[in-house]
């Protein structure tokens, strides 16, 4: 027995010591990582700015927040604003001689790639070279890489150039088969977020809006690729329709690539372009390192604040995505900060909770009374995402932004039939006439349906009211282009839903002009979490489980699961776009 207790005590001591060792090692790693970010980066002569496989372009500091337990530098998360500024700066930097695009599967949204592409087009006016290289190249990566003067492909590689398509899945028969009832209340014939629960096929309205959207986006992107590769649009269409990009030899024959070469040969081409001797090193500078070489870390002086609103809109106080309590605090802080002279709200959101959207809009309207508020749209500014933009002095949209979706809906599932089939039933005891206007077994009562309908209609009218005020149009005009319909940024400009087509950088410049600033710093909000804040965030059991599930089933599938399981996201009126479009 004595030996037993001795062994147990030894094991406990060993575990405690191991925990302390791990903790101190962890603290040291954090310190090293933090110091590493502050190192001064000097750009050598004859350098090449490189966009590579490690580059992950994000729209907001809250996107893809990496776990502090993963200290690897596998991905470099770079804000699109910083990436564009870096390319503009490189244009006039004598130490940067060219740009090399070396990515097969770029992690960036459609509008972000547009911004990078436009910045590189401007860079080329300097006379400096832009080369690109790929192996198994995604369509999004080719969209970026095709801007290069020369595009090189691995001899065994390929380009997945196929156009855009979307597949709508329907659950009506599934729900009926298994006895799941779904109460749906919506305003807007184009509000197709609920269509999969109501039909077994796509509605003519949804077919129309999807076809228009896809053709708008593909027409814009394909014409740019064709122009960069010096092809006629009809010729490019044939190449895409025939999937010629999949066959390496055909990529050269049909002008998608200039030559099939190995990566080592590609590097040698750059060396020759730079007139490097055999002993000279090829200096490739990543976007992140180049940004670190010039980005102001002090943040002193007058500021234009960029408040990023990225993700679904929800009630609550969490860091990721857009949570109303958190964002109200951000907005009030910016309102009271005397150094912040103007605010740019960068929206990249498909919407979400109507109540949370309304709370955020109110605070933005208060902010606008004190300082200029300019809005910039990213990939999405739809439903609640468009709603919160209605406090702006001016709205900038990207050409491919999914915009509008002015509509409202509510979805309430119930399980009466499936419960009854399996021997489950319930009786209700209540104190008032409508204490049980909704239950998970019985669904909505007739009065509950009437109540929810009034709520949805009232929310829609409130939505349109704020749009009429901001866009200076009548209720009838907005209702005519509303109804839940989603528009491309180009069409949104034509029908008056936005003021200008432009980038986040354009919005920042306008905000500075409106605030009469001659010199200013650009500050990003919300701030990235500190290392210690991230530790506590990572140790949350629910967050750990969510990350594991999200990694296993994918982000898109996880969002659907979240809608069904998260109590905060169920049983409330929604302003949300029904789908996402991405050039994969």
Automatic annotation (TrEMBL):
InterPro entries (alphabetical): ClpP/crotonase-like_dom_sf (IPR029045), Pept_S49_pIV (IPR004634), Pept_S49_SppA (IPR004635), Peptidase_S49 (IPR002142), S49_SppA_67K_type_N (IPR047217), S49_SppA_C (IPR047272)
Keyword presence, Ribonucleoprotein: no
Record's subcellular location: Membrane
Spans traversing the lipid bilayer: 12-32
Keywords associated with the record: Hydrolase, Membrane, Protease, Serine protease, Transmembrane, Transmembrane helix
One Gene Ontology term of the molecular function aspect: hydrolase activity
Keyword Membrane: yes
Family to which this protein belongs: Belongs to the peptidase S49 family.
Record's protein name: Signal peptide peptidase SppA
Organism of this sequence: Chryseobacterium terrae
